[in-house]
Amino acid sequence: KNDEYLFTVVAEERDSLLLGLRYSPTQLHFLFLREDGARAWQTRVSFRGPALTDGQWHTLVLAVSEGSFSLTRDCGLPVDIMADMPFPATLSVQGARFFIGSRRRTKGQFTGLVRQLVLLPGSDATLRLCPCRNPELALLSIPPILRGLTGKPEDSEVLKYPYETDMKVTLESRPPCTKAEDAQFWFDAGRKGLYLCVGSEWVSVLAGEASVLGSINWVSVSLSQAKERLEYVEEHQSLFTNSETLGIEVFVIPGAGLFIFLAVANFEPNEKGQEFSVIYKWSQRRRRFTPYQRVLTHGARDWEAFEVSGEHFLAVANHREGSDHNIYSVIYKWSPGARLFEANQTVATSGACDWEFFMVGPYAFLAVANAFNGTSTQLQSHLYVRLGGSFQLFQSFL
C-alpha cells in the first residue's frame, strides 16, 4: 500500500502538510514545507530500500540538520543525504494538528504497528540508542517526569510543562543539586564557571583553580585569566562505505583553490565485485565532504598524500587482488588541467599495507611496507627515491 504515514503535522485550516514521514514498500520519504515570503512549497527527501515489511520490529532514527538528512535502521550504517533544499530554520505550527499513523484521521493510515515515537530536538538519537544488543527493539529512555504528563491544559489553552530548562544561570548564588537537578548545568555568571550536577554535588566542567564554597569543594574558572574554553568533539558527518575502511588521509592542495580532500581506502569489493576507494572534497557551501573521484583499488590498506616540488601525489597501498598478494600499488599525480588524480607510476608490492613519505634535504623518499607474498611474511620492504621524475629503488629492508 502506498502513502502510509508514520506521523504528520498538518495545518488544519488550509489542509497543508507541514511535516511528515511517509512510507512506501521501496522508499521512506521525509516531507517538510518551505516558505519564502508569500510562496510555499513542499520538499521531499527520499531514502531508498529501508525494508520494513518482514513481520519484524525495526528501529528507525531520522536525524535532520539544516542541509543534512541521515537515516539509521536497526543501528546499522547510516544513509546520509545532502539536500539542495535545506530544512527551514523556523517552521510555524500555529493552528496545526499532530497525527500519528496517518495524514489525517482517515487518510494515509499506517497499516503496521508503532511502538514508540520520540521527537528529540537539537540532538541525534542514534548516539543514545546505538550500539544496542537488540537494535530492532531499542527504546529511547524517556525521563519519568515527561512520562507523567497528562497532555491536558489545566486552566488555560497553554500546556504548562512541570519541568524547566537544563541550564541554570545565577550570580554567585548556588542552586541546589539534588536528584531533581541531576545532569543539569549551572553557569555561575559571577565566577564565569560552568558546573554539572552529579549526584548531590556540582562538578566543574572546566579545569581551573580550586575554591571552597560552604562545605563543598568547587573548581572555579576565570575565562578572562585562564582563557579556557569548553572543548568537546561531536559527530559532524557519517560517510557510507561499501566495505571495511582501513585507511584515511586528509590533505590540502592550495594551488587548486584550497581544496581539502578526504581519501578513504576500502578493503573489500562491492556487491558488483568492484573495488573502489573514494576521494572526497570538502564543500564550503554544504560544510560536508562530498564524493569527488572514485579510484580502482585492490584491497586498499592505506593512502599517503605528499608534495614534491609543487606537485601533489597520492599513493595507495594495494594489499591483494583476490588471493594474489603480488600486485602493483599505484602512485597518482594531481592534474591541474583535468582537476583529477591520474595514475603516474606503478610499484610492484607484496601485500602492501602502508606508505610513508619523507624528505632528507632536497631528496624525496617514499617507503612501502610489504606484509605477505602469498606464502610467507618474511620478505623485504622497499625505500624509493625520486630521481628523473619517478621513484626509483634506493634500499631494501628485511
From TrEMBL:
EAR repeats lie at residues 231-284, 288-336, 340-388. InterPro entries: ConA-like_dom_sf (IPR013320), EAR (IPR009039), EPTP (IPR005492). GO terms for cellular component: stereocilium. The keyword Signal applies. Pfam families: EPTP. Transmembrane segments: none annotated. It is found in: Cell projection, Stereocilium. GO terms for biological process: signal transduction. Keywords: Repeat, Signal. It comes from Monodon monoceros (Narwhal). This is Laminin G domain-containing protein.
